[in-house]
Every structure is written in structure tokens, then in C-alpha cells.
Amino acid sequence: MKNSIKNILTLLAVLTFSISFAQNIEGVVKTSENTPLEAVNVVIKGTTSNTTTDPNGKFILDTKGKLPITILVQYVGYKTTEIELADLPVTPLQVTLKEENELIEVVVSSRRRIEKVQDVPIAISVITGKQAEQTGAFNVNRIKELVPSVQLYSSNPRNTGINIRSLGSPFGLTNDGIDPGVGFYVDGVYFARPAATTLDFIDVEQIEVLRGPQGSLFGKNTTSGAFNITTRKPSFTSGADFELSYGNYAFLQAKASVTGALGKKVAGRLSFSGTQRDGLIDNVATGRPTNSLNNQGIRGQLLWTPTTNTNIILAADITTQRPDGYAQVVAGVAPTQRAAYRQFDAIIKDLNYQLPSLNAFDRKIDHDTPWRSGQDMGGISLNVDTKIGSGTLTSTTAWRFWNWDPSNDRDFTGLQVLAKSQNPTRQTQFTQEVRYAGQLTSKISGVVGVFFIDQTSQTNGTEESGNAQWRFAQSSTSPLWKTPGLFEGYGIKTDARIRSSSAAVFGQLDWAITDRLHVLPGLRYNFDKKDADYSRTTYGGLQTTDPALLALKKSVYSDQAFDSSTDNTDFSGNITISFKASDKINAYATYAKSYKPVGVNVAGLPTDSKGLPLLDLAVIKPEKVNHYEIGVKTSPFRNSVFNLAFFNTDIKDFQTNVQAAELGVNRGYLANADKVRVRGAELDASFVISQHLTINGAATYTDGKYIKFTNAPLPLEETGAPVAFKDVSGTELPGASKWAGSLGGELSDQAKFFGNSGKIFLALDSYARSEFSSSPSASKYLVVPGYAIFNARLGFRAAQGLSVHFWGRNLLNKDYYEQLLPAGGNTGQYAGVIGDQRTYGVTLKYSL
Length: 848
Description:
It is a single chain. This protein is mainly beta. Helix content is 5%, strand content 53%. The protein contains 6 helices and 51 strands. It has a 22-stranded antiparallel β-barrel. The longest helix is centred in the N-terminal third of the chain and has 13 residues, at 2-14. The radius of gyration is 28 Å and the shape is globular.
């Protein structure tokens, strides 16, 4: 890893030399102290044409052959300046930016045009690339500490779910047969795999988190929100950034990016990110720590401007992860309703085994099956933007892949219960989106588009029993269970395949009835088709013809095969009314009818009393969503933001993932809950107290409940009960904390460091959430207690030259769980995904 980082950094350093070619408008952006500002966003208002300033504050902007124009000059922490130009300036523009509130003036592209976030009638949070870098938020799991409406749960990259307002992905182990409810887009490309949220960000410009259904603005329908991530684009002005971080547990992170002209009409950008860290959990069986980090990613872009009205970007990226597993630590043991001899403590006593620790936060395991979480993800995309009339036609074509190579110890012990548990997966996707966005008439603007995705996923899995399986599977007092070698090496080979296609037409209008009153209707038509094939075959174990012994083996693993094919169409839409009462108050109300496509089970099905699969569970009904929201975005006084939103979401046929007691159901199975409701409120606030002090905060209250779910699985402690299902109507949804919030602030002052002008700063951040259920059916043993963590940074930052800061995360060394989950087979023990202990380090950044 270290050699790879060194080689790539050397390559990037060589590529920093490039030649800049003159464009139509030149200018220089400085602060009121006459200090050049780097990476200032300069855009042509009402379009997506933009550029950024170089380390000397200089920029070159193509007018796209249209005059007059209005230029927006925007930079985090400074007031946006508007410049109207009727003719090309003879001399370079001289622009001076004044410091002011950063959130008021942040611009977004979520509605396919550049506009101020406070003017957008959508609940949206924006994290700039610089903010993410400064707070150490290098992946989505860190972003949730800045945007408390976001929840991410991951026991490994495959089993990752991302939710907004407690909705999006079923809580628990991932099933490939359903679509996520939260869209994840990078430069307009939809990433179908939730594993993408575990990757390190590479050269990110901005992260927009949209809350609520987003079916009429984005290609892929999403029922609870979307991440709209934009990366830094190639520039015809040469530039380079290098960043290196080092911390305890041998944390090492390197980032680099270079950009410049490759010809008169061609520019390039090459970006790299690499992260490594030693493990945080000790495996006493192997004598080395596990749960390390080992990530590398590289992204390249080529920009071609064949005409003044057309931009074409060809981009390619690849990320690899080779950590030493995502091991979970036994967090406790729940007594079940099985017979006394089938309780976990009785089982391990008979096997003369003890857990290495009864305290999960001793961070000790003795797992005997290697943990492996190899992941490769990448792709190529072609984005074409061309100006047509008063709007822009955009085409985004992309192909992506995901390869997953795991090994797990799903019994969470040092016993050979499950000697193997691995389900390698290969997934590919092709997407095409075409949309037109612009001013249609003097009163109406909008976006209309078509979207298509075709993806295939194939899993070839293995699950195999070890020499302790007989005791965990034992369901009677028959001495036949002790037959030597009966289960050792006995397992299943799984072949699960799914192909899913989706096509849609979507659009949204913005009708300005008056300057202050706007009506925004949106419509979407969706077609979805899914074909799945599942088969598993048993192998190994004691070779016998004895019917009694064969029956015991079959009770653990059995052959199973089924296929399913389904399709569905849906017509959905939304309407928003926006009223700008004054320059400081913008209110909106939204109703949305949304939809999550039909699902299919591709991870095995529970069986009936005859051992036959319950085929009525093979296809899962689509979710039907009715969403209501009102909100107000305000600036109560100068340099302040205070935004409120209230929402209610009703879901019929909620798609949920449940864990079966049968080992053969590898990753749980999908089912529908009759009705779910989530309601709550959100607050976003930011205040610039003075030129030296800023404070920001966010809070969310969420009340998520099963309104009706009569056939829910039994909670862990009721395993073995004489009934197979439980009515959990009225209980809380998994993963839903009543309260969550973040609060932070920064104290800064002008300073110089090694001759560079900049700011010395002290920043504090905190994140907290209340307790939440970690089980599809509420279990008193699988409740994650609430927690709060505190982070801090101290250092100097400059627009150019050297910046340095020291950082610390979880400063109070809080012990907390991010997730609790039962062991395979529901034998009583359950494990925890543990939050990181206190970490600290230093970051150096140099900008050319």
C-alpha cells in the first residue's frame, strides 16, 4: 500500500505541468485583504457552465457564445458576487469577495440548474468538498455525523444500508433482489450497489443530500432521498493539491489531484486517494489485530470543448479495498424459548469453550474463520452537455462493475460451527440518462428526461459446517447427533442470479405564477422487470444411507431451487407550492406519491413443515409511498440560516429484510409489512457570530412505526416459540432514533504560516443520537443505546501553499455500537459492530 501510494504520488507530480490556453473572459478573485482566493466557483448564471480559480486567484471562463450574461462568483465563507456583462471585458475582471455566511450563498445543481440552496423548495443539506476534508468525512459513514437525517449501517460493504429519515434500505443483511430507497449519484451516474457508500470520496467538490422522494428530478426513482455528489472537474488552468494524514493505529491517508490543459480544447484531471490503518480489534487466535483499512482509488477525467456550447467529459475510476475483515464482537447472549440444552451457554459448556471476553469493548475475538472483505468497484462514463435554445441537453452514459470477495465467521466464536461463510458476487450495470433542463417560457422552467438501467448480479456462495455444528444444530436428545463426522465439511453451494431492468420517463416544471409564488408539478412513469434464479446443493459430511442420519443432515442444510420473474409499472408524481414571503423567508409545501419497485428473493427461502420452500415469499410487492412535507427556509438576521421541515411518510407494503432461524437462508429473506409510517421534524441552522466565530447545528426528530405488521419474524429471545410469526404492529422501526443531532463551531483569525496568508483555527464538532432498535422485530436485547461523540481540529489553512492541522475523533473515547445483529441460526448469541475508539493525527496539505 505504501509503495503504491508513493508511486501514484510520483506520477501525479510529473503530470502537474500543463499549458493553459486563453478563453473568452479572464479575471482575478481576491479577498478584501487583497489575498488571492483559490478554487472559487465562477459560473454563468442559469447554466451549468463554470470554472474555478487557480492558486493566484485567476480564472478563465467560456461565455458559450452568448451575451449578455450574469456571472456568479461563489466561495465557501464569502458572499456571492453577481457581475452582469453586456460585452466582453477588455481587461481582466477584478473581483473582491467579502466574508459572510457560507450556507446562505451555497449553490446546488439538484434541480439540474445552478441556484442558491436557500431558494430550492426541497429539504437539502450541502457539504462542500473542503468541509468534508477538514472534518475528516472521507466517506458516507462520516457524513452522517454532519447530516443527522442520514443513517448508514454496515456490517461489511455488501451488507450496507443507507437511510434518510430512517427509510431507504431494509435493516439487516442485504438482499440483491430489491432496490435501495436512497439514490447515490456521482457526477450524474447512478450507483446501484449500496456498497458504494463505503468507498472513500475521491476529489469531491460538493455533496448534496436531498431528503424526501426524488422521482421527478433524478433518473432512478428514490423514495426517501438522494446523494448528489459532484467531483472537481478538469480545468484549463494548471493546478495541483497534495494531502497527507498520519494518526494513531498507523493511520495513513494520501490524496492528490492534478489538472491542466492538454490542448486548446482538451483538459484533464487525475485524482488519487489511499487510506490504510491497522486493525482496531485484537484476534487472540491469530495474534494480530483485525478490522484494518486498506483502500485505494483513482479517478481520471478528460474534458473536451468542441464548440462554445458543448462540453464532453469522459471519466473513469476504480477503487479497491483489501481490509482485514469486518469482524463483529459478541455483545451478549439472549436466552431463547428453546429447550435448556439448546441455550448458547449450555452449548458452549458442553463443548468446553469460553468466549475470550464477556465485554465487547475489550475488543477481543478468537474467530477461527478468516475475515476477508475484498471489494473492487469502478466504471467509465461519458457526459455530454450542449446548449440548445434557452436550456441544456445532457446525456450521461455509464457502465460500472462491482466485485465482492468475502469470508466471514458468522457464528462469531472460536468454535468451528460455520467453517465457511462466503458469498462472492459479481455485478455489472449499464445506465443511460438523457434530459433537457432550461427556461421553457418566460414563466415556466423545468426538466424532462428518460432513464434506463440494466444490471446483472451473480453470487456463487459457499457455507460449510465445522466440527461444532452438531451441538448448535441439535434439536433433540437423540444420540445420533453425536455421530462422528456427520456434519463436518457438510455445506451448500449456492448459485443465485438476478437480472433487473428499469426504464422511466420523468419531468418537473417550475411555474412562476408571480415572482414570489411558484407551483412545481412533477410526474414519472416507471417500468421495472426482474428475473431471478436460485439454487443450492448440499455436499460433504458423513456419507451415509441411514435415513435417520440423512434426516438430521437435511434439518441443517437441504437442496433448494426456485426461479421467479416479475414486472411492474407505476405512475407517480409530486406537487410543490413555494412562496417567498420576503428575501429572508422561503416557505414550501409538498405532496409526493412515490414507489419502490417490486422485489425478488435471491438468498434462499424459509421452508414449510415438509421442507419445501415457501414460494409465496419469492416475489415481494412494490412499496407505495405517500409523502407530505412543509418547510421554511429563513435568514432571521444577517449572516444566519434557520431552516425547519416537518414531514409525514406513509408506506404500504413496506419491504423489510428478516433473519431466518434456518442456516440455509444465507442473508435473511424479504417480506412485506402491511403499513409503515414515519413522521418527524428537522432543523438546520448556521450563524456567523463575528468574522472570527461561526456556529452550525442540525437536529432531527423521527417517529417511525409499524402501523400494521402481523406476520413479522420472531425476535431473538422468542426463537423456539410454538408460533412462527409475531404481530409487531405499533412497535418502532429498526434503525430509527427518536432524536439525532450535530453541533459544531469554529473560532478563527487571520494569520501567516511560512509566509502564507491564511487562518489559524480551532473547530469542535459533536454528533449524538438516541437509542434505536437493531432488529426487524423489536428485541430488548438488540437495542443500541444512545451515544454522543466529540471531534476537534486545530491548525492553519491557506488557499495556496502549506496548510496543517491536528485532529482528534471521539475525544472522550466513548464506547458505542453502530449495529447489533444475531449470529447465524439464532442460537442466542449476538454481535456488535463497534464504533471506533479515540483516534488522532495530523494532516498536511500543499496546493500549487
